[in-house]
Amino acid sequence: MEKYEILETIGHGSFGCVYKAHKRDTNEIVALKMIYSIDGDEGVPSSVIREVSYLKEMDHSNIVRLLDVLDDEKILCLVLEYMDLDLKKFMTTSADIAKKNQVIKSLMHQLLDGLAYCHSEKLLHRDLKPQNLLIDCSKHILKLADFGSAREIGVPLQTYTEGEKVASLWYKAPELLLGGQKYSTPVDIWSAGCVFAELVIQQPLFDGATDFVQVIKLFSVMGKPNEETWPGVTSIIFFLIIKSWEGREENLNLQKN
Ligand code: INR
After folding, report:
1. Half-sphere exposure of residue 252, counting CA atoms within 13 Å on the CB side?
2. At residue 160, does pLDDT exceed 50?
3. From the CA of 10, how far away is ligand 1's center (Å)?
C-alpha cells in the first residue's frame, strides 16, 4: 500500500471506495478499488473473488485492466487502469461532444466490441450502465468496468435474492425484471441498447422508479409480450401479476413520451 499515494476519491460502492492514486516508483496514475470486508472475519465477498478472477482472464482494449491485487490483512485492493470519467459524467459534462453522431457511433462500437469479447469468453456482465462504462476524454476510448455482477453463461442464477440496485433498473432486460430463470447474452445487449438510446436522446430511455413501473413502461412502448412474440412468457409468474393490471396503467401516473 505504501507504493501508492492516494490523490482523490472517485467513487463509492457497496463494497468500499475507488480512489485515484499515484504509484510512487513508476509515476503511473491508477485507480484503487478498496474492498473492506464488513466483519473482520467474514472474508472477501464472493462477488469480489469473481470480479478478480474474471478481470484476470480478460485481455481486450475495451475492458478495464486489472494491474495488481494487493492483499493487506483487512483490506483487499484492486489496482486498476485509471480513466478520466464514466459515461454518465461524460454525458453531463461534455454533452456537446457526447451527442455527436460520430462520437456515439464510436462509443457504441467500442461498447459492443468489449461486450462481444466478454460473451466470447462465456461471461455475462449483467450490469451495463453509463456509470460502469469508463471514458478516456481526450481519446474517446470506452472501457467496460465493474464486473462485480458478472457471471459465467449457463451457470444457474437466482434473480431475485441478490438485492439489485435501483440505478441498474433502467438498463435491465424484461426477462430479468420479470424474474425469468433462463437468460443469457441478450440481457447485456438490452442494456447496451438502452445506453445507445440514452446517448441519442440525452436522457434515460426507460426510467422507472420500481421494478413494477419499469415493466409497465417497457410494455407501454414495446407492447405487451404474448406467447407468439415471446414463447414461454405467460408461464413467468410475475407476468401474470402484471397482466392483472391490464388497462389500469393510468393508476401508475405514467408519463408517455
Ligand atoms: C472515474 C470514475 C472517473 N474513474 C468515475 C470511475 C468518475 C470519474 O469509476 C473510475 C474508474 C477508473 C474505475 O478510473 N478505473 C476504474 C472504476 C472501476 C474500475 S469499477 C476501474 O469497477 O467500476 O468500480
Report:
1. 20
2. no
3. 7
